[in-house]
Design a protein that fits this description.
The structure holds two protein chains of two kinds. By secondary structure, chain A is mainly alpha-helical. Chain A folds into two domains: 3-248 and 325-445; 252-324, no CATH class. Chain A contains 15 helices and six strands. Chain A has helices at 3-42, 45-79, 81-116, 122-151, 170-174, 177-208, 216-247, 249-255, 290-296, 306-317, 326-355, 363-371, 375-389, 412-442, 450-453; strands at 156-158, 165-167, 267-272, 282-287, 394-396, 400-401. The radius of gyration of chain A is 24 Å and the shape is globular. Helix content of chain B is 74%, strand content 1%. Chain B has a two-stranded antiparallel sheet. The longest helix of chain B has 34 residues, at 2-35. The N and C termini of chain B lie far apart (62 Å). Classes of the chains: A mainly alpha, B mainly alpha. The interface between A and B is large, with 91 and 81 residues.
Amino acid sequence: MNAVGLARWQFATTSIYHFLFVPVTIGLAFLTAILQTQWHRNGKSEYLRLTRFFGTLLVINVAVGVVTGLVQEFQFGMSWSEYSRTVGDVFGAPLAMEGLAAFFLESTFLGLWIFGWGRLPKRIHLLTIWAVSLGTALSAAFIMAANSWMQHPVGYKINPTTGRPELSDIWALLTNPVFLWGYAHVLLSSLVTACVIMLAVSAWQLRRGTDRKIFEPTARLSLIVLAPAMILTMFVGSELGVIEARYQPMKIAAAEAQWSTCQPCSFSLFQIGGGNHDQTPTQIIQIPHLLSLLATNSWNGKVVGLNPLQSQYQQKYGPGYYVPNVFIQYWSMRVMAYIAVIILALAGWGLWLIRRRRLASSRRFLFVATWAAALPFVMNTAGWFLTESGRQPWIVQGIQLTRNAVSPSVSAAMIATSLIVFLLLYLALGIVDVVLMLRYARISVPEPPVTAIHDQAGGPQSPVPAPTY
Amino acid sequence: MGLSITWFILIAILWAGFFVLEGFDLGVGMLHSVVGRTEEERNAAVATIGPFWDGNEVWLIVAGAGMFAAFPSWYATMFSAFYLPLVLLLVALIVRGVSFEFREKVHQARWRTTWQWCLTIGSLLIPLLAGVAIGDLLAGIPIDAHQEFTGNFFDLLTPYGLYVGVTFTLLCLVHGALFLALKSTGTVRQRSERLAAMLSPVMAVAVIGFTIWTLTQSNRGDLPSLLELIAIMGSLAAVWLAWEQIYGWAFAATTVTVACSVLAVFADLYPRVMVSSTSARYNLTVTNTTSSHYALTVMTIVAVTLLPFVLAYQGWTYYVFRARVRVSDETPPAVPAQSQPS
């Protein structure tokens, strides 16, 4: 494999891995903040215990999320130096803003939250977890603004001397429709991810735990947030699809393996065969008009096929093959959407049990809910496949091709070396992280001495800032 | 042009901020198993930096992202040229970063020893590698007319770069020992004080050597710059103050020394940002790597608005956790640690 291929593998694997932790961090920071707020309001000690329990899971997860984020930040320059050189004027700005506005906030206040139990006044300590939550959400905002610019470049002009894009309107970058909808989509699916994790852990505890009652509030909280969050994620995702169909028609046509133009267009539930070398796959169960609706929001909307798009692109950008990997597009779209439906069904089942007051006693539901923990990760990864693979062969749609973006001075052997290093390291980290998450998700929650925790700082018996979260 | 200079200075300050702040927590990381002989003592040593290290590390990320945004070609050339060392740096940052979280989580001798070594070696490699990279900017590496690195791994091991790496590592060691002397109690504190007194003369000699070498390297006459003079005076003051056992001021002195040493390299670089050993014509400069005026304006507004808040809340963190950290068997903690799964 050549340097471009290896660099793509490295970026894809490290990003996917990073994004296993990101949505859990974003969502769980928010849910933990809610739990702590509830404790602050009602003063019930079980909410404090739950806050600390899920806070521990959050912190284990953040540790891996933060360090794998470093790799992403460095990788642009390391293996994609032509990309960085060409678009740094535009792309660098949101990245630097992310550091200044979000990373400082997130990491400083996380330290304050972890070590601030008993040192900070109750109210201030509550604010620190909300600051962490805000930091995670801001971080996602800036990186999504940067990513959306790669999908649909706006707010730039090409410098005639260098031929490189330069930022001309930051506001356009931050109101890019792909960004606004994409960001909402990511935030909501992060919330879905964390809700499913919280539900799974609570269900596990309810099934086996000695301390059954304490996890009922979190099982309920996660389900009550999960149902609307999942519905909104799907709604926003479908709007995002319409927007992307406008700016990146290849991406959406490939997601349906639609080679010729259609109007109205149907949606196939499955297909046999297909891919870039098979334009006539056997499509199974066609739902009329659904693709028109998904791609254009209208009953009889027209979707331009891949073949006509390919000839349009050749006229516009010169000879070349501009169709993304159709197999990946078709299946990632379906995996994402079908899992969303399954999660929604799970949430509906749970809500129905809450209504019947049987949530904590339905062993079948608790069993399924525990194993559902894997679903959001597959769903999120499929979503990223859909959006990132669908942008190919471009690294920045219409501006730079991926194959022209790698570092000329970095050899394939060097990238292969680092790829192996990162894979082994990430594998080890993943095992450790899962083992720790499982250990800590299974322990029964200790009863903390509530009174001792809220000594004011600086008292004669100043508590030790040992790792006590 | 004006804003490019502003951003060059800002990036120099971000790097200096990284070495000043992360510097002491790197030093503590390197020394934690030297000053802590028992598990409790090591925990106390690590607890001195527990609330701070993650926020400190962001200075590195922002320095990198700032280079990306303000000088894309500098970022592109530097990061692709240092490919393999940066992989190693990332590995060090990763294993060190997770070791803080993981080391406490399982009570088992082998588990703890593993993460103890990850923390120690990671903390050693980070200033060493970052120091070599910064030294190399001034020492010069093969770069062609297209701003591309043309050398191999061994071209990155310039004598000056290696020396800067060693000097910065020594600075972090003393800086960390002094921080421990200020923030710990009992035997940990005593050992840290002894280490600070022992290591600081070595550090001062290294800083003097660094100044002389930087002068020859940058070829601008015999007179050290103001920054270099302050760095030397700071290092000598640190030795004297550590011997006199005035640790607060000694820590202030190493703070000044670290900051001025880092800034001195950047000051000598200017207006270049990366020296080409192939030909001076191919040097990367502030002018030939800068972003457009508009992008820099936006970035300046954002940085000027946000940095005061960052400094304020990071400063507040240091105020909140100003108390010394006791070894946990000296006084029982007010908050029992979460019970461990067996």
